[in-house]
Prior knowledge:
22% of the residues lie in helices and 29% in strands. By secondary structure, the protein is of the alpha+beta class. The protein is globular.
Amino acid sequence: MEKDKKKPADRVGEHPVTYEMYAEMPDDGHRYEIIEGKLEMMTPAPTPTHQAVHRELIFNLNVNCSSEYVIYYAPIDVIFSRTDVLQPDILLIHRSRREIVSERGIEGAPDLVVEILSPSSRRRDKIVKMKTYAKYGVGEYWIVDAASRTLEQHCLMDGERYELFNLFEEDDVVSSVKLPCVSFVIRDIFREIPG
């Protein structure tokens, strides 16, 4: 019997797609995630608005939290399972949990995950990714919306679902029960938005 001679890229169309198949794919210039065994191409390169908000968030989180948390940002794989691999915009891991950081990526649930919305990622970030992050126990999930200049803070309840804990806007000071180091004015992360 002849051995299966399909290349890794050919096998991607088959389900479920695993981390191992994904890791063997040749670099085609695109970024991908695996959600429930399905390979999904991510949106095109981030816009200047997305980049400006991203940069300001990283700056504020570094100033306040870098002594307690390791901070990573996309592109980096968060490997929840062989068939669930996501690339959040920003993530924080408490330094006492650094064992989940490996050469492959992050292998387990970060303490905080942040997604910055774009028009093409809104549904994925607010529904699909939210379910996945809750399923694997990410304690806190922020959704940042540059269009409305808000930050939604979702906290994991009962270890299985998120509840909208707070909505920060304008001059609100962002804080977190789970990450006490967090403290910045929400308006500050939107100050460099082009136009």
